[in-house]
Specification:
Radius of gyration: 32 Å
Structural class: alpha/beta
Largest sheet: 9 strands, mixed
Number of helices: 28
Shape: flat
Distance between the termini: 50 Å
Oligomer: single chain
Number of strands: 30
Length: 818
């Protein structure tokens, strides 16, 4: 388990490097190189203390010993030159193992600042060599910063997902384990730990044999270097990691394994991969080839756990379908659907896990599908813990299915026969696609949206963008930008873009009559509009044309369909963009009460919606105003306040103090409570502690100038893109905050800001803001009046929540749920 001191030391080493080495991968490499360098010297020193001789730093390399580097008699530039020369020549040192020579191959010092190196080496000197679990965990923590790398579709797999996959596959002590796209060897380390936990009494010989059972491949030399170091620091004396192109090289094609674990790259280079001809599936897409490779390289009783993108699950191209057919027929026993945010904030890509087992696939006629809706974290960019975790239950379902194959259907799990999968047109590997619709117990008849007695479903289209005469005509043309987020439905009278009659005729777009219900059905599923005039839509919509207004109210349909958005999202499929097909959309059902009941419901719901719209208008338009008396003095901010920039540090999910960043301040000057981050309250951070009534101002980016009054007793530190204002006693903080929301303030901010694409509202600009300064008693009165206004505004925010809930409760009644 990683101890706090070691974690803090790694963080400190990164903080020292970040100004000179901004790339996280380069930071990891520099720390790795320094640690190995230091540990080799530690081993020499231990040998000498036990009466032996130094092994690594001898002969021409003796001058590079760690003690010589830290010799206080060396000047900064001398130390820098000695260290830079040492790491660059170390791969030529014949006294060190080949593993270490490989790690040092091609390395160099990417900066030439003596002070940075002095601080860095001092921090590294605090580490000491051992082969304990603590040191391996420390290196894994260091590798976690590589989560910020997303090149070539490579995203670091979260540790808890790796451990979940390893636990399900359950590698044994006698089995060979391979990761053919190993990155930093996370899967291999997790599999090694899993075996140790389940075999506590391994003999030294068994442990030595165990370490020869693991191997990995990676095409990138820097990843090979890091994975070798990772395994070495977990006790592997000679890690077997090959620099190898799994998809285009044949050198290791004939090697098979008992267990394969991987999260292969999702992206293919432009033009695709050019593989050799030994793959069973003919393809140029890397994700197809990797899965094919892993299936084909399992021993007769082999097992695999593979993270795959949605293309493997849904894509209709021949290679994808051929791969799925091969997997269902010979290898696949389970598919686990993961939520879309697992790789956030670095990628929102939706993924699944394929579990392969050649023996289990032969024994059972069904494939198990498990849907994980929550992995224990919110699905947004910040990935804060949310207390909801389906992974433990998912593991129990999977583990139980391995032991006893039973047909099952529950919220998380569903078994589908291989015959049914293979008979479906595209062999789609999504359990939701095969799940039977749950009957709705409504007191009103249920009708399909494709029921021709009441509705016609029309799709949209887009005229060619290269033909100017198709555009700018008299026909309104709806796109997603015409439907704002957050509304039950949007009444649409005008659109941002229009097309011509010719454009309509030369595309698949359809002129829809007014009173048509428009539903976004591609990428962003379920935004709903109501056409108040005839109009067309692009292809990202399925549109409900009402054919019988004697039995159907279009506004009722809009409200009813809004309730189906979660179902639509579940039914949608696709790779790059999820989409609900016209056929699936037509099979959606809504209850259809008599027209009089529909009209009564709409009247009630419209009343609620008007209240919500009115409250939203207040929130959108409210700004504090201060009527400025010309007799008041005007002072530049420089005369009435001190200004200070914030702390440069990495935000964390846990820490001693809240870390307030530019994104934590809303445009109307409130402190957001979503995506809260923290920092450790070390000596560097303490000067940036906030006091109650400090004022913070955003100094860069599109939201420059927004201002927060920190009126909390919470322990908090402010970040570098913010400026702290501490006012003299002549100014009430609440008064200055109110002034900073006014048009008079914003007019000055816009005139003082500099920079083009990245606006800068720095301290020099902020100092020149002129502040109207009434007597202190008048400031108190203004603040008190504005507090009353703010309370009313917050009441409107609450009002929206209350009446949105009322709408949902009313709709639940017609479904028989109320």
């Amino acid at each position: 388990m990683l101890d706090t001191e070691t974690k803090s030391r790694i963080d400190s080493a990164r903080d020292i490097l970040v100004g000179k080495v901004p790339d996280p991968k380069s930071q990891v490499e520099q720390i790795t190189i320094a640690l190995i360098y230091k540990f080799m010297d530690d081993m020499d020193r231990q040998s000498e203390e036990l009466g032996g001789k130094a092994t690594f730093f001898t002969g021409d390399f003796k001058k590079y010993r760690w003690a010589n580097l830290l010799d206080k008699r060396l000047g900064g530039h001398e130390r820098l030159l000695l260290y830079a020369e040492g790491i660059e020549k170390m791969n030529e040192n014949r006294n060190i193992p080949q593993l270490f020579r490989d790690i040092f191959k091609g390395v160099f010092l990417p900066y030439r600042d003596p002070e940075t190196l002095n601080l860095f080496l001092k921090e590294i000197a605090g580490f000491s060599y051992d082969h304990s679990e603590r040191l391996g965990d420390a290196f894994e923590y260091l590798l976690s910063v590589l989560g910020t790398q997303g090149d070539a579709g490579q995203f670091r797999t979260p540790r808890y997902v790796i451990d979940f996959i390893v636990a399900v596959v359950d590698p044994k002590k006698h089995e060979t384990v391979l990761d053919p796209a190993c990155g930093t060897a996370g899967f291999l380390v997790s599999a090694f730990k899993h075996i140790l936990i389940n075999n506590e009494n391994l003999t030294p010989d068994e442990r030595a044999r165990l370490m020869t059972n693991f191997r990995g491949y990676d095409i990138a030399p820097d990843m090979v270097r890091l994975s070798r170091a990772n395994l070495y620091l977990h006790g592997f004396p000679n890690p077997v990691i090959h620099e190898y192109d799994t998809l285009t090289s044949e050198e290791r094609w004939d090697e098979r394994c008992d267990v394969i674990l991987a999260n292969p790259p999702f992206m293919s280079p432009k033009g695709g991969i050019r593989p050799h001809n030994r793959f069973s599936i003919k393809a140029k897409r890397s994700e197809v080839l990797f899965v094919d490779y892993m299936a084909e390289h399992l021993n007769s009783g082999g097992r695999a756990g593979i993270i795959v993108p949605e293309g493997i699950i849904f894509q209709g191209q021949n290679a994808y379908k051929a791969l799925r057919k091969m997997l269902v027929e010979n290898y696949l026993w389970a598919v686990v659907s993961l939520p879309a945010g697992v790789f956030n904030p670095y990628s929102g890509v939706k993924t699944s896990i394929l579990f392969l087992d050649r023996n289990l696939a032969r024994r059972t006629d069904e494939v198990l599908f498990v849907k994980v809706e929550s992995d224990g974290f919110e699905l947004g960019a910040q990935r804060r813990p949310n207390g909801k975790n389906d992974l433990p239950e998912a593991f129990e379902i999977l583990d139980g299915h391995k032991k006893e194959q039973k047909t099952q259907e529950s919220k998380l799990a569903l078994t589908i026969s291989r015959k049914r999968l293979l008979e479906s047109p595209h062999i789609i590997l999504s359990g939701d696609r095969y799940r039977k619709a749950v009957a709705v117990q409504s007191k009103w008849p249920m009708v399909k949206l494709g029921d021709a007695r009441f509705f016609t479903i029309e799709s949209g289209g887009t005229p060619s963008s290269t033909v100017p005469e198709y555009w700018g005509g008299d026909i309104r043309w709806v796109t997603l930008v015409d439907l704002p987020q957050g509304e039950s439905f949007t009444e649409i009278k005008n659109t941002q873009r229009t097309i011509s009659e010719t454009g309509l005729k030369n595309s698949s777009a359809v002129l829809l009559p007014k009173r048509t219900v428009l539903v976004s059905s591609r990428a962003t599923i379920g935004r709903i509009g109501l056409a108040l005039e005839p109009m067309a839509t692009n292809q990202g919509f399925k549109n409900i044309v009402i054919d019988d207004f004697d039995q159907v109210n279009e506004r009722y349909v809009a409200y009813a369909v809004a309730r189906l958005v979660p179902v639509m999202d579940q039914m949608a499929s696709g790779g790059t963009f999820k989409e609900i097909s016209k056929t699936s959309f037509s099979h959606l059902e809504i209850p259809l009460p008599p027209l009089s009941i529909q009209q009564q419901m709409v009247a009630e719901l419209e009343g609620y919606r008007k209240i919500i719209e009115g409250a939203r208008q207040i929130l959108a338009n409210y700004k504090p105003t201060i009527k400025i008396d010309p007799t008041w003095s005007i002072k530049p901010l420089a005369d009435i306040a001190s200004l200070e920039y914030g702390l440069t540090a990495s935000a964390k999910d846990e820490g001693h103090a809240r870390f307030i960043r530019i994104t934590d301040i809303t445009q109307d000057g409130r402190l957001s409570e979503s995506a809260v981050k923290f920092v450790d309250l070390n000596d560097e951070a303490k000067p940036y502690l906030l006091m109650r009534n400090d004022v913070l101002v955003a100094r860069t980016g599109a939201t420059y100038g927004k201002t927060l009054l920190f009126d909390s007793n919470e322990t908090a530190v402010f970040a570098s893109y913010l400026i702290r204002i501490r006012l003299t006693t002549a100014v009430l903080p609440g008064y200055y905050w109110a002034f900073a929301q006014t048009d008079a303030y914003w007019a000055q901010a816009k005139s003082l800001v500099t920079g083009g694409g990245q606006p800068q509202f720095n301290g020099n600009a902020l100092k020149n803001v002129s502040v109207p300064l009434p007597p202190i008693d008048i400031q108190h009165r203004i603040v008190a009046e504005l507090e009353v206004e703010r309370a009313l505004v917050e009441a409107n925010r609450k009002l929206i929540e209350v009446f949105e809930k009322k709408i949902q409760e009313k709709l639940a009644e017609v479904w028989g749920e109320g």
